[in-house]
Amino acid sequence: MTTLKPLLARNRSWALQKCQHDPDYFEKWVDGQRPHSLWIGCSDSRVPAEVLTGSQPGELFVHRNIANMLDPADDNVMSVLQYALHYLEVERVVLCGHYGCGGVQAALSLPTLPLAQESSALARRIGQLRHTLHHEIAQIADDCCVAASPGASASTGAERSRRMLDALVEANVRAQFARLLESEPVQTVLASGRPLSLHGCVYDLASGHLTTLVEHLSPQEHAP
């Protein structure tokens, strides 16, 4: 696909279908947005936030990057977080990773990759992720040594590798969630008493299901 024509054609078809179902569909979004949630997710093309949550335009304020990272030194993600919390006043922040994440896999395998010899933005990003997960990666290396046996089948090894990568994906969600919770924009809102809930989730490509791994609920949500 080297031309934009197929995407433009699909855009026109989509817009026509929306207008046929609801003539005022697009007019609803012209005057502004009031999203209820900020979504911080991975850039992976298989994990589109609006699609997998069944959301309409105006519901989600979305930021996506490789491996759903929240780096306090990254003005991109931090400006999105600040804008969503202080100007849009979203009620919920969802930080979502996914099984089979290429960024997490690259962090695990970085020493053996040509990327490790680069000084590119991608290399720095993956290196930072590997540093964040270094304890978990060391544990995986130890587990691999213990689990390895001469008689193990290829399928057994592949399944073990998949489980270990899944565990690392979940560890990354928890690590990035901790940074989210500790961030200045979030702490400011929590200190103000304004309702805000935070959710760390993982998406399963095989089932299409979201699962909550960790969350911080506002006092209002804890109330009976």
TrEMBL record:
Binding residues annotated for Zn(2+), in chain numbering: C42, D44, H98, C101
Q: Which domain of life is it from?
A: Bacteria
Q: Which cofactor does it need?
A: Zn(2+)
Q: Which UniProt keywords apply?
A: Lyase, Metal-binding, Zinc
Note accompanying the cofactor annotation: Binds 1 zinc ion per subunit.
Record's keyword annotation contains DNA-binding: no
In the record, biological process GO terms are: carbon utilization; cellular response to carbon dioxide; cellular response to oxidative stress
Q: Entry's Gene3D superfamilies?
A: Carbonic anhydrase
What Gene Ontology molecular function terms does this protein carry? Answer: carbonate dehydratase activity; zinc ion binding
Check the record and name the SUPFAM superfamilies matching this protein.
Answer: beta-carbonic anhydrase, cab (SSF53056)
Return the Pfam families for the record.
Answer: Pro_CA
Keyword Metal-binding part of the UniProt annotation: yes
Q: What is its EC number?
A: 4.2.1.1
Q: Which reaction does it catalyse?
A: hydrogencarbonate + H(+) = CO2 + H2O
Function per UniProt = Reversible hydration of carbon dioxide.
What family classification does the UniProt entry report for this protein?
Answer: Belongs to the beta-class carbonic anhydrase family.
Could you identify this protein by its name?
Carbonic anhydrase
User: From what organism does this protein derive?
Assistant: Klebsiella variicola
